[in-house]
Amino acid sequence: MGFTLAVGTFLQHLINGLTLGAIYGLIAIGYTMVYGIIRMINFAHGEIYMIGAFIAVTTFTLLLGAGVTSVPLALVIVLAVSCGFTAVYGWSIERVAYRPLRTAPKLAPFISAIGMSIVLQNFVMLTQGARSKSLPPVMTGGITLWRDGDFSLGVTNIQLFIILLTVALMTGFTLVINRTALGRAQRACEQDRTMAALLGINVDRTISLTFVLGAGLAAVAGVMVTLYYGVIDFYIGFLAGMKAFTAAVLGGIGSLPGAMLGGLLIGLIEAFFSGYVSSAYKDVAAFSILILVLVVRPSGLLGRPDIEKV
Amino acid sequence: MSTEPLLDVQGLTMRFGGLLAVDHVDLTAERNRITALIGPNGAGKTTIFNCLTGFYKPTAGRLLLRHPVRGPIELQKLKGFGVARTGVVRTFQNIRLFPSMTVLENLLVAQHQALMPQSAFSFAGLLNLKGWRAAEDAAVETARDWLRRLDLLAVADEAAGNLSYGMQRRVEIARAMSTNPLLLCLDEPAAGLNPRETRALAELLVGIRVEHGIGILLIEHDMGLVMDISDRIFVVDHGARIAAGTPAEIRNDEGVIKAYLGEPDADEATTGTESP
Amino acid sequence: MAAPASPSIPFARNLREAGIAAAIAMALAIPFLGLRTVNLDQGLVVQANLRYVPLAGLVVFLGRLVLGLLAAPLRRAVAPLAGLKPPAGAQRLRPYGGPLLILAAAVLPFLPFANRYVIDLGTTALIYILLATGLNITVGLAGLLDLGFAAFYAIGAYTCALTTTQLHWGFWPALAAGGLASSLFAVLLSLPILRLRGDYLAIVTLGFGEITRIVILNWQSLTGGPNGVSGIARPTLFGLTFDRRAPEGGHTFAEMTGIAYAPEQRLIFLYLVILALTALAAYTVGRLRRLPIGRAWEALREDEIACRSLGINPTMVKVSAYATGALMGGLAGCVFAARQGFVSPESFGFMESATILAIVVLGGMGSQAGVIIAALFIVVLPELARSFADYRMLAFGLAMILIMIWKPGGLLSGRTPTITLSARKAKSMAEATS
C-alpha cells in the first residue's frame, strides 16, 4: 500500500515536472537560438513570454465576452493572436535595441537588453495595471490514471495539452531548422556571418526571423502558463526568463535539443525538489545542479565542447 | 656536442581521439644554438610546440629540460603556465598580444613573475615603497632594451593592437625575451614579414642566441631563413620525425624532398629544395 | 539595414520607412494601449481605447520621419567634434581631478542647500560608486562577467548586521569583517568555476547571486528571513556616538565636542565615512592598475592564452580580481546596513546586480571617472524624474538603451595607459639635468 502510494506520488511529480519543463523548454529555445546566431544573451526574452501571456489573457477575455464557448476554437484563436502580436514585439525589439549594436562590444547589447526588459515590464504595468490578472478556468477535467482511496494520480487536460503541443512544436521546429532554407541560412549565420552574407544570405532578415520564431514559441509558453495557472502579472517574465536561460545553458547554449532537455530537467528538478525536499529551496537546487553540470561539462549537456585554439 | 642538450624530447606522442597527430617524436634543442622544426602543412609542428609549452598534455613521451638552477625538469608534468616559468617561452603563429595595452605594458606583463614578489604581492606597490619603485624602474629598463633592439622604441606607448603586422611580430618576440627565457620557441616568426624584415629577424636571432646564451627552437616555412640560420633541423611529416641533421644534410635528404615535393616524376631532377 | 543612411536619402524613401514604422507601432499598440484588461468584481473585462492606436502610429510616423530627415545633417554637424582632443592643459590637470572631486564631495553636506534629502541621495550615490568600483575590477579590468555581484553586497551587509546585533561588535570591526567575509566568499565561490569561460561564467555567477539571496531569505533562524535584521550599529567616531543621549558608559559626539546635537550629524558623518571609503577604494584601484597584479588583470581580459604563455597563473589572477572586487562590494554592503539600520533580502535581488553592472558598462568598462558619472546618472535620474512618478522606470530603461546605441563602449570608453615611456624619458632627463 505504502509502496504504491510512493510510486503514485513520484509519478505525479513527474507529470507536474514535465509540464513545467515543457514551458521552460519553449522559452529556452528563444534564448538558445538568439545566442547561437548573434552570441548574445537576450535578457528581454522573459518579457516576451510575459507579453505573450498578457495578450492571451486579453484575447481569452474578449472571446468569453463575445460568447465563444468552443474551447478548441478559442485555443486556436488565442494561440494565433498571441503568437502573431508577440512575434511583432520580438521583431521590433531586435530592430530597435539590438541591431544598432551588432558590431558593438559584447556587453553593450546585454545592457541594452536589460534596459529593454525594464521598459517592457513598466510598459505593461502602466498600460495593464500592476494587479495580477486571473482568468476563469478555460480547460477543465482530466484523466484519472489511477485511484487508491484518497489518493488519485491524474493528468489534467491542460497538462496533456501542454505536453502534446510542446512535442508537436519541437518536432515541427526541428524540421524547420534541418530541412528548410531558413534553417540552413540560420545555421550558416551561426557558423560565420560574414561568409554567409558573401554567399548571398540576407543576414539581417535571418536574424530578424530568429527573433520572430523565438518570440512565437515564447508566446505559446505564455498561453500555456495562462491556462495552467490562470493568474499572471507583469513580473512573471523575470523569473521564468531566468529559469529558461538557466535551462538553455544547462542543455548547452546554442543547441536546440539541449534547450529542450535543459527545460525538462529544470522543470523536473523543481517539481521533485519541491515535492520531496523543500519548495523554498527549489531554485537553489536548480542552480546548484547547473553549476555542478558546468563544472564537469563546461559547455553544458549537449553543447559542442569549445576547443581551445592555441 | 660535448654538453648535454638543454631540452631533450623522447617519444613525444599526441593523440586526439582517433587521430595520431604526433607519433614518437624525438627532438633536442641546445643552448646557443638555433634548432628548426620543419615539415609540410599539417605535419604536426604546432602540436609539438603546444606539447612542449604546456598547452597540450602529451599522450606519451618525456620532455626533459635541463635547468641550470632547478636541475632536470620533466615539462610534461607541469601545468601550462608552469612550463613558461621554467624559461620555455613561446610566440604564436597567429600573434597573441594584449591588443589594447601599450607595447611597453605588454613587455611589463611579461615580467610579472619577477615583479609580483618585488611588489610584495601588491602591498609594497600600493604604498609605493622605494624597493618597489627600483624594481619597476629595472623592469622598464629591461623593456626599453628590448624595444631598442627590435626597433620599437618609437611605438612604445602605442596600443599593441594598432601596430602593423611586422611590428606586432617583433613586439611578441620582445615580450618573450623580456621574460628572460632559457629556450625561446618561435612559431613561424617570419610569416607575413617582407624580405627586409625577414633579414633583420635572422640577424636578431643569430645575435641573441649567443649574447644571451639561450636556445632557440623555431617552426618556419621560409626555407631560406631556416637554412641560413639553423644549426640543426628536425623534419616531421604526418606526425613522425623523418629526418634530422645540419642544413646541408637536410637539403640533400631524399625523404625530406619526397615529403615536400611528393614522389618525383620520372626524370625530373629533384635538386630543387626550397632554398632560394 | 542598420547602417547609417546615405547623406542624400530620398524623401520618398524616408516617407515609406516612416509609414512602415507607424504600421508596426500600431500593431504593437493594439494589445496594450488599445485594449486594457481591468479587474472588476465580477472578473476581468477588456476596455477598448482604440483611439490610442492611431495616435501611437502618428507619433512614431512623425518621429521616424524627423529622425530620418535630420540624421544626415546632424551627423555632418557632429562629425568635426569627434576629431577634437582635449587641450594639452587638461592632460596636465588630470592628476588633480580626483582630489578636487573628493574635496567638492566633502564640503557638499555643509553647503546651504544640503538638506537631509541631498545628503541621503549623496550617500546612496557613493554606495553605488563603491559597488561599481569593485565590480569594475572583475568586469572592466579582468573581463570576467559577473551577474551576481549583489551577493557580495548582501554578504557584507548581513555580516555587518549579524556581528553588530548578535555579537555586539561596533561598526568599525563589523566593517572590516564584512569586507573580509565577502572577499573570502568570493575566493571560495570562484575556485570551482574558473575553468568556465565567458557566458557560462556569467550564468554561474547569476546562479550564485540567486542562491545567496534565497538562502538568506529562507535561513530564518540566522537572518530573520523576509523580516530581515534590524537594530544594526551606527558608525562611531573614536567611540563617540551620534545619538541624542549617550549609551551606557559611552559618550556622544555632541557632549565631547560641545557642538549642539543635531540629527543630521549622524547622516553627515555616515556620508563622510562612505566618501572616505570610496575615495580610498578609487585610489587603491588606480594604484593597482599600475602594479603587476593590475596589469595581469587587464592582460587576462585581453588574452588568457598569452598570459599562460608568459607564466602567469590565470587562476590566481582571476581569484584576486574576484576577491578584490568583492571586498569593495562587502564594504559597501556594511555601509548600506549601517545607514538603514536594517537589512532584508529584497535589497539584493538580481536587479541590484544588473544596476551595478549597468553602471560599469554605461560608464565605460575600466574607467573610474565613467563609474562616477554613470552612478550619479543611475541614482539621480530616477530621483529627478520623480515628478513623472510612474514613468520614471520606463524612462530609465529607455535611457539605458539609448546610451548604449549612442555610445556602445560606454560614456568614457578610452583606456589610459598605466605607464608611458615618454613620461619616463622626460623624468630621467630632468633628473640628469638637475
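qc> Chain A has one domain: 2-140+153-296.
qc> done
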